[in-house]
Write a structure and sequence with these properties.
Elements lengths: L2 E8 L3 H12 L4 E4 L8 H4 L20 H6 L9 H14 L6 E2 L4 E7 L4 E6 L4 E9 L21 E4 L14 E5 L3 H13 L2 E6 L6 E2 L7 H9 L1 H9 L19 H14 L15 H18 L3 H4 L15 E2 L11 E5 L5 E4 L3 E4 L3 E3 L2 E4 L8 H5 L1 E3 L6 H4 L20 E3 L12 H21 L2 E6 L1 H16 L29 H13 L5 E5 L5
Parallel strand pairs: 1-2, 1-6, 2-3, 4-17, 6-18, 7-16, 8-9, 8-16, 9-12, 10-11
Antiparallel strand pairs: 4-5, 5-6, 13-14, 14-15, 19-20
The protein binds NADP nicotinamide-adenine-dinucleotide phosphate.
The site of NADP nicotinamide-adenine-dinucleotide phosphate has 26 residues, from helix 5.
């Protein structure tokens, strides 16, 4: 007989920690299953050199509890991976949720039992659990991806993916290191790798825009001020489109006179962080606006890179901000160093990996270490890897046609999958917001929903097909009105060979989304169908 709880939560990252706490506090029994050996989710795994958050640390945390917020002090503007992991352990200990968690436990499948109206969850370790509710807290970027380079297994040196970095130090000293990929992970790690390695070869397919982080240590006075301002900042975060204390911009790039526009961009550049991409409302809407900002950023790259034969290969021409905006510390300057070589894969694609290194169409690059900074099968990758089966044994792979037709309601629920909830699921605001703020909104909504079901003797809840179709259509229409869908990126799924292209993020802002979700709940879970318990006379 399987262990039964009210709710099983999959994953013990930001989502799983808060969901576990919230449900336990509401009197539900919870079991949280986590594949890794500890809490943290992606912050447990992505320990690559230079790994750091690119949201301001003082906002990249839980805000549901003033007491919790004030107990923790961030050391710097952008926290490093180890500090974020310490923070998540601190929270899990403060909330005392580790006792509800089982680590080193990988969920393999979850099957809806129609007769018993409960989920049967089976782990890779052979354990079985049953639960009335199944909640995914697997995150949007948790399945790392290494492209299928021919000959990869033959490489005799060491190789690592940035998203699965070893827990013991990797000695780069005196080594020839090849890094494939220049997304956030590559851009953060390359300057740090170059500090230690003897030679660095960056295998770049698409050049990147990047804005300086301007990271710095906080003073004690600043920390006291952040804590003092917490309630005001939280209020703005809860009512902003990004979940950050940045109000919705009403300024258009093209409509702002040149002198003023440049002054705004220069100011944002000097301040660093995510200010620049939030400075105007139409950067990702109007191609002309986008080009003005893109050209400003290309100008910064031209200023930084001193080698004239290298700089032209580092200039991006995609619509700025339609790939995830990148923050860096000394990224472009790194190419001024003589031991750093840029390999432009548009001119010489990788043919294969050999036992000695990387073979492009032009030459072989002998290497001791290969770093795959090649990203993630984002948004749907982890969910589709789990064998989740809803009504009539229909799997998620079947429902979503292996990713070709992803439909959800609010990014929170799926027709045909009763009592199943996805925190920051596809078609919710998720990765285009400050993710912890988006997570809190989902966790609180799900918790309120489960309370409602308990109070009203509801046996099952699931979205209607009509609501799901309507929501998915709306998400697509909003995305098609932007430049996001015109760029190859992990946002669109085009980073994964063979993956269907789709834009699975709700783009109308966390503020509007929160209101919509609240309205759904206030109207007795509009768009859902509820099946009630039979009350015995
Ligand atoms: P990513 O943004 O998807 O970047 C992957 C890189 O690998 C890209 O440069 C891509 O080139 C390249 N690549 C992929 N397949 C390739 C192939 N077959 N051949 C050559 N190059 C290939 O992945 P990421 O850097 O890990 O970042 C993913 C996301 O995680 C970020 O956008 C961010 O949301 C999150 N993240 C956040 C932080 C932070 O908070 N600081 C840090 C790391 C990651 P193309 O561009 O040409 O596809």
């Amino acid at each position: 007989m399987a262990n039964h709880v009210d709710a099983i939560v999959i994953g013990a990252g930001f989502s799983g920690i808060y969901m576990t706490y919230k449900l336990r506090e509401e009197g539900f029994t919870v079991k949280t299953l986590e594949k890794a050996a500890g809490v943290g989710g992606v912050w447990f795994l992505a320990r690559y050199p230079g790994a750091r958050c690119d949201s301001d640390s003082i906002y990249y945390n839980y805000i549901f509890s003033e007491e919790l917020y004030k107990k923790w002090s961030w050391s710097s503007r952008f926290a490093a991976q180890d500090e974020i992991l310490s923070y998540l352990n601190f929270v899990a200990d403060e909330l005392d949720v580790k006792k509800e968690m089982q680590f080193n436990t990988e969920v393999k499948s979850a099957i809806w039992d129609e007769d018993q109206t409960k989920w049967l969850v089976i782990t890779a370790q052979g354990e079985e659990f049953t639960a009335t509710y199944l909640i995914s807290g697997v995150g949007c970027l948790s399945t790392s991806s290494i492209p299928n380079f021919q000959g990869r297994e033959s490489f005799k040196g060491e190789s690592y993916h940035t998203g699965n970095w070893p827990h013991t130090p990797v000695d780069l000293n005196g080594k020839r290191v090849g890094v494939i990929g220049t997304g956030s992970s590559g851009v953060q790690s390359i300057p740090v790798i170059a500090e230690e390695a003897k030679e660095v070869y960056v295998f770049q397919r698409t050049p990147q825009y990047s804005v300086p982080t301007r990271n710095r240590q906080f003073t004690e006075e600043e920390i006291a001020q952040f804590k003092e301002a917490f309630l005001d900042a939280r209020e703005i975060m809860l009512n902003s489109p990004s979940g950050l204390p940045i109000p919705r911009s009403t300024r258009s790039v093209v409509d702002t006179p040149e002198e003023e526009r440049v002054a705004i961009l220069e100011d944002a550049w000097e301040k660093g962080g995510m200010i620049l991409n939030n400075a105007f409302y139409d950067i990702v809407i109007d191609p002309k606006s986008n080009e003005l900002v893109s050209e400003f950023l290309r100008g910064k790259i031209r200023e930084k890179v001193k080698k004239s034969d290298v700089v032209e290969h580092l200039l991006p021409y995609y619509y700025y901000s339609t790939k995830r905006p990148i923050l860096d510390t000394n990224y472009h300057d790194t190419y001024n160093q003589d031991h750093v070589t840029l390999v432009n894969l548009r001119q010489q694609p990788i043919e294969c990996i050999t036992e000695n290194g990387i073979q492009t169409t032009e030459k072989e690059y002998p290497l001791d270490i290969i770093v795959f900074a090649t990203g993630y099968d984002a948004m749907t990758g982890t969910l589709l890897k789990l064998d989740i089966r809803g009504r009539n044994g229909v799997s998620l792979q079947e429902k979503w046609e292996n990713g070709a037709k992803v439909e959800t309601y609010l990014g929170l629920g799926l027709a045909g999958f009763p009592n199943f909830f996805t925190i920051t699921g596809p078609q919710s605001p998720s990765v285009l917001t400050n993710v912890p703020t988006a997570i809190e909104q989902h966790v609180e909504w799900i918790s309120d929903c489960l309370n409602y079901l308990r109070e009203h003797n509801v046996k099952t809840i699931e979205p209607t097909v009509e609501a799901e179709v309507q929501w998915s259509k709306q998400c697509t229409e909003i995305a098609n009105g932007t430049l996001f869908t015109k760029t190859e990126s992990w946002y669109t799924g085009s980073n994964i060979d063979g993956k269907s292209r789709d834009f699975l993020i709700y783009l109308n802002g966390l503020d509007n989304y929160r209101q919509l979700c609240n309205e759904v709940a206030e109207h007795g879970y509009k768009g859902y169908q509820l099946q009630y318990e039979e009350i015995k006379a």
